[in-house]
Amino acid sequence: MDLLYNIFIDPFAQMAATPDFLLQVLWEGFVTGTLYALIALGYVLIFKASGVFNFAQGIMVVFAALSLVGFYEAGVPAYLALIMALGVMGVMAIGVERLVLRHMVNQPEIILFMATIGLSYFLIGAGELIFGGETKSMITQELGLPTGSTVVDVAGGIVILQHIDVAAAVIAAILVAALAFFFSKTRIGRALRAVADDHQAALSVGISLNQIWAVVWFAAGIVALATGIMWGARSDVSFALQIVALKALPVLILGGFTSIPGAIIGGLIIGVGEKIFEVYWGGLLGGGVEGWFAYVIALIFLLFRPQGLFGEKIIERI
Amino acid sequence: MFKKIATGAVIAATALTMQTASVSAQETLFVPSLSYRTGPFAGNGIPIANGFADYFTMINERDGGIGGLKVVVEECETGYNAQKGVECYEATKGKGALVYNPYSTGITLQLIPKTPVDKIPVLSMGYGLSAAAIGEKFPWVFNYPATYWDQMSSIIKYIDGQEGGIKGKKVGFIYLDVGYGKEPIPLLDQLAEEMGFEVVKFPVGVKEMQNQSSHWLNVRKEKPDWMIMWGFGAMNATAIKEAAKIRYPLDHFIGNWWAGAHADLEPVGEAGKGYISANMAKAGTDMPAVQDILKYVVDAGKSQVSDRSEVGKVLYNRGMLNAVVVAEAIRIAQEMTGKTAITGEDMRIGLENMDLSDERLKELGLEGFTVPIKATCENHGSGGPIFMHQWNGSDFERISDLIPPMTDRVRAMLEEAADKYIADKPGWQTQDCG
Amino acid sequence: MIYREAGQFKTSYRQDAAIFPILQDRIAIWFYLFVAFIVIPTFGSDFFINSMMIPFLIFAMASIGLNVLTGYTGQISLGTGAFMGVGAYACYKLTTYFPETNIIILVLLSGFFAAGIGMIFGLPSLRIKGFYLVVTTLAAQFFLEWCFIRVPWLYNYNASGAIEVPQREAFGLIVTGPSASPSVRYLVVLSIVVFLTWIVSNLIHGRIGRTWMMIRDMDIAAELIGVRPLYAKLSAFAVSSYVAGVAGAMLVFFWLGAAEVESFDVNHSFLILFMVIIGGLGSLVGSFLGAAFIWMLPIIIRAVPKMTGLDINASTVEQLNFMIIGALIIVFLIIEPHGLARLWAIAKQKLRIWPFPH
Predict the structure, then answer these.
(1) Is residue C84 over pLDDT 90?
(2) Which pTM was predicted?
(3) SS3 B142
(4) Is C224 in Cβ contact with A298 (below 8 Å)?
(5) Quick check: is B228 in a domain?
(6) From the centroid of its chain, how far is CA B27?
(7) CB of B129 within 8 Å of any CB in chain C?
(8) How many domains does chain B have?
(9) B329 and B399 belong to one structural domain
(10) What ipTM was estimated for this complex?
């Protein structure tokens, strides 16, 4: 009886008793969800265009953030460092396309997946060799990002809004809008969608697959840099950050591997869901349930829709 | 092509077996250093490894080694990974290793059962298995200057002093959810019962180290009066940032001595002002021995430090303290056995007769560097006092006197834990201190 | 010249269906076993046996487990590390309750617990496929990791949260714990690995193995001609997890001696998937080759600067190690996506016509 009370009544009683705290939890969930969505977006972009499940997205986040901080520490002004970090991601995109993807056309998915794990090993080694393993702090202020916080009085209590979190949500929104525009309005974006639909058909109308792949990897690099800045500002830039990228995987299955709106909605569902569950129910299980709870949400959705919420319908033929 | 690879592999493998089989017999003092300059905890591992190596380089350069023998420090990269740590142990133990300093509770736990078999002591300085402080039960393991349990009791004592009685208060314990973070929980629970305060625990998984917002939402929900942290690596900076974010009073937030280094607070900067942590060795360079390191090692370009200012930071000095203790143990062992090229067994005697008093520290050019460390046959943990220091936005300032642990309570619990540890190990080597 | 099958005639179906149809192969396999059972324990140094051979065999075992699932049945899994953990924790609990029972029997029994858990987490595979399934097995991985931390009963309420292997004897010899000699532990591991490889090999070449391969090649078609996906997939999950569980129990009992959840984390799942892919999907020999390659390569790279007298920091070596392994994996996948097993087969083919190639 006690257990039932703790599961079904007590958490809701708590929510009702301290609505300000509930709002804070929801806000935290929203912000984390946005960041998960950003990481998931990186995966989706690449998977959509090349069918590669890019495991290296996590280390790309770290690598992008490290280059940014590394350039700045070497004496480059912040904004120039930002452009140079983008340049690094661009060079990497071309490198990956030239040295890896081009040679692996027509391989099974799992081989490509493995190749990206190889790539992530390479980037871990290279990153530590070049930038050192020390924890670095993100150059938040130098980039003109806001710091500090605002306290809002609502519902008889307070909600603390970090300016950087607000900025993260705004930047994520801008990035998504820009990507959506890029995909639907530009020539190269349309070519990209064509490639996503059918590689061979795209090839036969004269679209260069190699070029498209370099472009999507670069786009994923931009997303990685944005994620790296935001997450780096929330905690700091270290190699442990790549683990966070694993959190984006349930978002991915929830939203579907090929859907950009799916990544965003999936990110928000998981971000809010796991925070609420951890705060109100986690104590019953001894805490720390965040690590797997996201997967459980995703799994439940998946049992009803095996292709994720917005994934393309799976059609099976013999 | 395949054949070439195969032949190459075979040649390399044979060479490897040969190479490890031939134990180097030249007269040196071989001290392996299980470092982690890579991986998620590299930020903490680098200064420790630097401090450890630099002190021995300085001893070699300035004094020509210890007892006329050069100290050879060989680093083996563990990445804070227990499996790689064991591999490092296996790879180096045959070369006449004197002592192991694993710098990871996980690796320490793996090595403890191996110590009596290979006759090489383990010095887990202020970490590892707390129960190993019971010298009768763990002849080969040393964990002075204080165990985690000693440290926890000192922190509780500090809170008790600040609050004018901890009774009825709520203490939050946020910890890294691995062996290291869980180590002090039995003591904390026991003290809570005895002293009448409430404990709330917030485990942080390794995967969640940089994603702690829900943990701190829980803190805001529970509203503890004090927070204690057993954190490491990237977890520390994130925790302090999140604490500041929810407006938790940072001067009521106390980290243990692995959660209060420059590497942890520098990324936080001004926002971490007021944060308190425990420590065992003084930071700074205003000691003759540290000046010698700067002179003989750093300025001579023989150090791996990225910048001269790294010397004297909390973890650098921690690594150096470890080296001081090892060097002192070597000297004592040489004195007691009368030979200069000592073995692991001799080293154990040296460690057991450790007496790093204030006078001795002064002789070493390290006046006031650390609290006196004294080991006996029964007590391998020394049970020394600790002090608190506080982050002022750019550096640490010492804010407390030495706080001794609640030895009476801790010792009994340690004995119990030690008995439990060896209960299911028939033939476990103990020693008689009669 | 030597490796030639001319003159070897098969006179019965039994001979034709043999796993090693060629005499030289049969001789070779006995030779390998001779080396493994007699030469290595006699002449290998402690470091070679302890840090190279024992983990190599254990990881080869785990790779075989994953190969059953991924290589033969086509279900990609990233939960191998956790299934190994289930075996390890089960064995630890078993030996706590039955301290007198021969530890080798307990190690073999503990695999059944892993098999049970594996089947439960295999259920979604009936509906979910491809990368969606990968992420589902990750759910198993993270959930089980959490259990290993949050259920103190599993590690006997140890304050440190680690399982520590008690000393156990079998056949009058100490086989676990720090006092056990490396050669004894090596021989125990080797025996178990050889025995289970033999069992799995028979399973694969039998009826059940063929249903797995049908599911892998095209599950709908297999279903249409009468293979039940439920039985085929779940049996693959069960066998795979059983083998992984035994490997996990061996990992703790015969190699590490003590383990925290870290020894069964997702990195190990990746490591073993690597071994399977580099070795070759759907090949038992490949599992051994892949495990040897992935496990021994870093150790050899680490030893290179010392042997050649180069003065490089340990950390730099480790970083280069990461880069070299990463690059090698990519190069390997580009040159031979079918893995070392294919190279092995090509080498054998070349040898057959040597010295007179076409």
Answers:
(1) yes
(2) 0.88
(3) strand
(4) no
(5) yes
(6) 29
(7) yes
(8) 2
(9) no
(10) 0.84
